Amino acid sequence: MSYADFHFQHVRLTILRILAEAPGYSANDSVLTDAVNAMGLVCTRDQLRTNLAWLEEQRLLTQLHPTPTLTVATISERGVDVAKGRSVIAGVQRPSPGS
């Protein structure tokens, strides 16, 4: 497994954790990009959108596109389970115990 694979597994977990704590369980891609980068995980907005699409394919979140340049992601119940470590999905870093 490459460094990029490990990196984006952590990015995906971080996205889910942010959404699980966000008001309404939703956030736009601009806020998510800033939050992921603030956690020390370098991620462009394009990379974030690619990971949102992957997470949606896994049914961990849904996406809305209110404008051509804005994406709003909302975590699903399944996504909350993964964020909290109650469920494991290949491709998403498993949270550490107690985190």
The number of distinct structural domains comes to 1
Q: Please, what is the average pLDDT? A: 96
What ranges have pLDDT less than 50 throughout 5 or more consecutive residues? none
- The CATH superfamily name is Winged helix-like DNA-binding domain superfamily/Winged helix DNA-binding domain
**What top-tier CATH class fits best?**
Mainly Alpha
Overall shape: it is globular
Helix content: 40-55%
Provide the β-strand percentage band.
15-25%
Amino-to-carboxy terminus distance: 24 Å
Question: What oligomeric state do the depicted chains represent?
Answer: single chain
Report a brief summary of the structure.
The protein has four helices and three strands. The protein is α+β, with helices and mostly antiparallel strands. α1 (3-21) packs across α3 (45-57) and α1 (3-21) crosses α4.
Overview of this protein structure:
Strands 1-3-2 form a three-stranded antiparallel β-sheet. It has 99 residues and is an alpha+beta fold. The chain has a single domain, classed as Winged helix-like DNA-binding domain superfamily/Winged helix DNA-binding domain (Arc Repressor Mutant, subunit A, Orthogonal Bundle), CATH 1.10.10. 28% of the residues are buried. The chain is 49% helix and 16% strand. The protein starts with a helix and ends in a 16-residue tail after the last helix. The mean pLDDT is 96.
How would the blueprint of this fold be written?
Elements: H1 3-21, E1 26-28, H2 29-38, H3 45-57, E2 61-67, E3 70-75, H4 77-83
Antiparallel strand pairs: 1-3, 2-3
